[in-house]
Amino acid sequence: MAPKNGVRILTPRLKAQLQLIRGNKMPTNELMSILLLVAVCAAMMLGFPVAFTLAGVSVVFAFIGASMGVFDLFFFNAIPGRLYGVMSNEVLVAVPLFVFMGVMLERSRIADELLETMGQCFGSLRGGLGISVTIVGMLLAASTGIVGATVVTMGLLSLPAMLKAGYDPKLACGTVCASGTLGQIIPPSIALVVLADSLSGVYAESQLAKGNFIVEPFSVIDLFAGALIPGLMLSSLYILYLVYMAIFNPETSPAYYRKDVGRTELILKIAKALVPPIFLILAVLGSILGGLATPTEAASFGGVGATLLAFLRGQLKISVLREVASSTARISAMVFAILIGASIFSLTFRGFGGDHLVHEFLTGLPGGFFTAMLIVMLVMFVMGFVLDFIEIVFIVVPIVAPALFMADISPVWLGVMMGINLQTSFLTPPFGWALFYIRGVTPSSIKTTTIYRGVMPFIAIQILMLAIIWTFPEIATWLPSVLLG
User: Fold this and answer.
1) Residue 3, pLDDT score
2) Model-level pTM?
3) What is the pLDDT of residue 477?
4) Any transmembrane segments, and where (predicted)?
C-alpha cells in the first residue's frame, strides 16, 4: 500500500513549518485554520451541540477572517448548493431507512429469542454464554446495524444471566459492549453509508487532481463488500478471545446449566429464531452485493420486512409505530444536522487554506504514506475518546483523505481501515457510547471502572484487526473485486 516512489523528502512547505517552530511567522490564514479546528474541537468537548458548533464557530471565524483580509466571504455562496446536494443525495436517503429498519427490529424483540436460543445451544460450555452474545451481536449487526439498541437489549437480557452464572463482571460487560458495536463494521451499517459517501467525492476529486480522468467508481456497495470479511474476522477474534479465557481462566466464564430441552425441540427453536434475521440479511445485504438493488432500495425493502416481522410477532401497534417513527426522525435529524454543519465548517476551513496546509504536511512527512497513514489513524483513534463516529467522519475525512489518496491506495481499503478505527470510538473511555449504554443497564454494584477494564482487551483486538488489514489489504479488497469487478 505504500506509494511507488518510496520515502519522500521534506517539501518546501514542511521546511517552512519546521522553521515556524524555530520562531518564524506562519501565514495568518493558515494560523486561522488551525485556530478554527482547535476551537471547534474544544467547543464540542465542552458539550456544545455538534451541528451548531460546527456551523456557528465556522461563521464567526469567517467574519473575523474577512475583517482581517484573510478570508473571502464569496466561499459562502456555495452553501446553498451544498445544502441542496445533501438533501438530494440518494445515497444518504438510506440512512433514515436503515435506522427505521433497525429500530423496528429492536421493537419486534427478535434479539430476545436469539439470545435465549443461542444460550441453550452454547450455555453448557465454558464461555458459551459469551460466545452466544457474540454470535447474536453479529447477526443483529448484519440485520439492523443499530449499536445503541443492540447493546441495551443484550445488556438487559444476557448480562444478568452471565453474572448469575458466575462470569467475571469485566468479561461480561466487555463482551456485551464489543458485540453490540459489531454493527459499525458489519454491513449494512449507517457508519459505512456516511463514510462511503464522504470518501467517494474526495476520491473522485483526488483522481482528477492526479490527471486520471477515467475514475474508477467507488460507492457504498464497494465498502459494504469490503467490510464484510473484516467484520466477520473481527467477530471470530472476539470468539477466540472468549475461548482462550474459558480454557486458561475458566473461573471467569463458567458453564451455565439450564433446563434441558429435547434435540428436536431445540432444532425447531433455533430455526424459528434464526429464520427472521437470516431472511433480512439475505434480502437486504444479498440484494445489495448481488447488484439487484441499490443500498437505498434495499434499505426500504428492509424497513418493510422489519415491519412485517413485527406484525407476525404481534408487536406492531400504533404506540410502537409512533415510537419507531419518533426515534427514526431524531436519529436522522441528528445525522443530517451534523452533515450540514460539517459542510459549512469544511468551506470555512478550505477558505483559510487549511486543506492545503494539511495536504502539504501529510505528503511531506519523512516516511511518506506510511507515516501519514499512521498519524491519521492515531488522530482518529484519539478523537474517538471524546467524539462520536459521525462527527469524526464529517470533520476528519474531508481534511485528510485527499492527501492519502495521492498515494496508490484503494478507497475500499482506506474505508475499511477508517471503519474499524471508528468502531473503537464506541468503546474507548471516557465518552464511548457503548459504555454509556451498558452503564445504564448494569447493577449499581458494578463500578464504571470495571466496565472500562472489561472493554480494554476488545479494544486491543480491534487494533490487532487494524494491523492485520494494514498488512494484508487483500482481505478488504478481494470480495469487492470478485463481486463487482
Assistant:
1) 46
2) 0.85
3) 94
4) 31-52, 58-79, 91-110, 130-159, 171-196, 223-249, 270-292, 298-316, 328-349, 361-382, 389-407, 413-438, 450-472
Greatest distance between any 2 Cα atoms in the chain: 79
In this predicted structure, what is the pLDDT of residue 415? 95
For the record, the C-alpha cell of 330 comes out as: 431524531
Is 7 a member of any domain? no
What residues make up the domain containing 153?
A: 12-484
Give me the amino acid identity at 11: T
Q: CA Rg, the chain, in Å?
A: 23
Do the beta carbons of residue 286 and residue 278 sit within 8 Å? no
Q: What are phi and psi of 396, to 5 degrees?
A: -85, -45
Distance (Å, whole) CA 355 – CA 202: 12
DSSP per-residue letters across 261-308: --HHHHHHHHHHHHHHHHHHHIIIIIHHHTTSS-HHHHHHHHHHHHHH
Residues with Cβ within 8 Å of 364's Cβ and at least 6 positions away in sequence, in order, are 8, 10, 11, 13, 14
In a domain, 30, yes or no: yes
Q: Give me 316's grid cell.
A: 406492531
- Burial label for 272, CB within 10 Å (0-12, 13-18, 19+), is exposed
Number of structural domains in the chain: 1
